[in-house]
Design goal:
With 604 residues, this protein is α+β, with helices and mostly antiparallel strands. It is built from 19 helices and 27 strands. The chain is 35% helix and 18% strand. Helix 14 crosses helix 15, helix 14 crosses helix 19 and helix 16 packs antiparallel against helix 17.
């Protein structure tokens, strides 16, 4: 199994660990400290050695920050985790706060006394974050103090060792472009930005650029590393050599100079002393990186990681590969749905058993490399937690009359998948059918959207919410995120959300996943992955329009649909989608599973 169901959180450990940290801060002359969920690369998925926030507080979500002061400690989370955080932390020791409603910088301005010295690890905060905190503390008459070594590490006596996952070469046939060609393209982008070199801090950018994959973090094939790409000459890769076999090292050496991680800081200082103009993405690069360049005489060119957009625009080879991965995954997922439809009504099924079965069906494809994230397997009220993680402590039976939500994905060498289905055991309530159908309407409106060049995800986001808004309802997460190809299941910069400001371009892969959550009762989410299509003429129109190709194929539970709420166009879309699911998946199923699929994909 690629996932475990161990209980990772124990609220009772928080107060003692908080006391240890406060004692260490006092020893260093600090009045507070910022503890983010981050590593040196600012990635969403981080190794165990970097999970300082979870160790200190017990909170295991994918985003958060703890502000530790002498007399109070606050943990900030977004709308996905407002329920989870209260279950996982000792709220007498850590006060939960909403990251948007009460931004940490605002709270600091009111909670920190004049003259206070608040520490932060400059490797664990982006340059942009550090500037915001510095400004807020300055306004409060306090000081933001960078530390050389993290005080949490000083009191974390059983901290895991850093990872040493083996690096592998990614086939050019799947990537669609040789590493040398990619390096030349990015070097030109560096020059066009008016820079002498660019620092790459995101491992997925480095993996894409050099056509490599790794195994350093859970569920995402990333090689933790840094790189410097000059406008002329070979890039430099800074990576622990123990991760490289002789074959991998030999192949990579043709495209890049390879150094140990200890050489990274001196390399940045060398750029600074040469008065180089260095492109750094201040929204993703650690504050320490920008400081090393600037403090030694270099000029920081503020700009987006030059790999991000090329990586987001998938090559024809990448799209062909990922379509194959999604077709394979569709068969495995449909086999799971058929199994669930037979087993759930019998009773005795629980969240862990369902998650284990789904992973087993994927493993039986013979191509599964990993899951793409911890499966969200939630029954009844647990389905109302958008990022719920089932454990042996929270495992809940799947009962008749309740909703079961499963959000899961797989990592195959040819693609990364992510799919959510909301299922009902027995007869749903009228409210369940109404809410599910409103979510479905939003899903269909995104899937059917046509839009001109320059359209951003923020422009489209309302389509997913309008039917919910009509009933005074909404959901507190984005409608869609970018997805990589055998890389991160959450990939930028493209997204469909209220804050999605990047123009959508052909070849980008996104999720389409509106939802609804009734705390303590049920949750609903319907998710497929979609690809932005090339602009095509519209009959009678004066400009071409892009759209979306849906590449996920699995039945949507018709028992949870109220047909009277769907328009004729929406019903036609659903029937056509189910026909495509049937044609894609049915030839690969046995008789029993095929019979389930045929019934599940009947026209409304």
């Amino acid at each position: 199994m690629f996932q475990t169901f161990d209980t990772l959180s124990d609220p009772s450990t928080g107060p003692a660990r908080l006391a240890l940290l406060r004692a260490e801060l006092a020893r260093r002359g600090l009045d507070g400290f910022l503890v983010p969920l981050a590593d040196e690369h600012q990635g969403e998925y981080i190794p165990a050695a970097a999970r300082r926030l979870a160790w200190l507080t017990g909170f295991t979500g994918s985003a958060g920050l703890c502000v530790v002061l002498k007399d109070q400690a606050s943990i900030f989370v977004d709308g996905r985790y407002t329920v989870q955080v209260r279950a996982q932390v000792d709220t007498a020791a850590f006060t939960p706060r909403h990251l948007i409603d009460e931004p940490p910088s605002t709270v600091l301005k009111t909670a920190v006394p004049k003259g206070a010295r608040i520490g932060f690890d400059p490797w664990l905060h982006t340059a942009a974050e550090a500037e915001r905190f510095e400004k807020a503390l300055k306004e409060a008459g306090a000081e933001l103090v960078p530390v050389g070594d993290n005080p949490v590490d000083a009191v974390w006596d059983d901290r895991p060792a850093p990872p040493l996952g083996a690096v592998t070469l990614y086939p050019e046939a799947l990537a669609g472009e040789a590493r040398a060609a990619k390096v030349a393209r990015i070097a030109k982008a560096v020059a066009d930005a008016g820079a002498d070199a660019a620092v790459l801090t995101q491992p997925d950018s480095i993996a894409w650029l050099l056509n490599i994959r790794g195994a350093d973090v859970p569920h995402t094939p990333l090689p933790l590393s840094f790189a410097v790409v000059p406008k002329d000459g070979k890039p430099s890769l800074f990576i622990d050599g123990r991760k490289l076999s002789n074959e991998v090292r030999h192949t990579l050496a043709e495209a890049a100079e390879i150094f140990e991680p200890v050489a990274f800081e001196p390399a940045l200082e060398k750029l600074g002393r040469a008065n180089a103009r260095v492109l750094i993405d201040r929204s993703t690069a650690a504050a320490r990186i920008a400081a090393l360049v600037a403090d030694t005489g270099g000029a920081v060119v503020d700009g987006r990681d030059p790999v991000v957009l090329p990586k987001a625009r998938k090559t024809p080879a990448e799209l062909a590969a990922t379509r194959g991965a999604h077709r394979r995954d569709a068969v495995a997922f449909t086999r799971f749905l058929a199994w669930f439809d037979r087993e759930a009504p019998k009773g005795g099924l629980d969240e862990i058993a369902a998650a284990e079965a789904l992973e087993r069906f994927r493993a039986e494809t013979g191509a599964l490399k990993d899951i793409s994230f911890e499966t969200i397997s939630g029954a009844g009220p647990n389905a109302a937690l958008p990022h719920y993680r089932v454990s042996t402590a929270t495992n809940r039976p799947i009962r008749t009359g309740e909703i079961y939500l499963v959000d899961s994905g797989a990592q195959y060498e040819d693609g990364t998948t992510d799919i959510t289905r909301t299922l009902v055991v027995g007869v749903p309530t009228e409210e369940m059918r109404d809410r599910n159908t409103r979510v479905l309407k939003g899903h269909i409106r995104i899937a059917r959207a046509r839009f001109p060049k320059g359209t951003t995800g923020a422009h489209l986001d309302i389509l997913a919410r309008q039917a919910l808004w009509d009933a005074g309802l909404d959901f507190d997460h984005g409608t869609g995120h970018g997805v990589g190809v055998y890389l991160s299941v959450h990939e930028g910069p493209q997204r469909i959300s209220k804050t999605g400001g990047v123009a959508l371009e052909p070849g980008m892969i996104l999720s389409n996943e509106p939802g609804f959550y009734k705390e303590g009762a049920f949750g609903i989410r319907i998710e497929n992955l979609i690809v932005v299509t090339e602009p095509t003429p519209v009959e009678g129109g004066d400009r071409p329009m892009m759209g979306f190709e849906t590449i996920t194929f699995a039945p949507i539970d018709r028992r949870l649909i109220e047909p009277s709420l769907l328009s004729a166009e929406e019903r036609a879309w659903l029937d056509a989608y189910h026909q495509a699911v049937r044609e894609t998946v049915a030839p690969h199923l046995d008789d029993a599973d095929r019979a389930f699929l045929i019934e599940a994909t009947e026209p409304l």
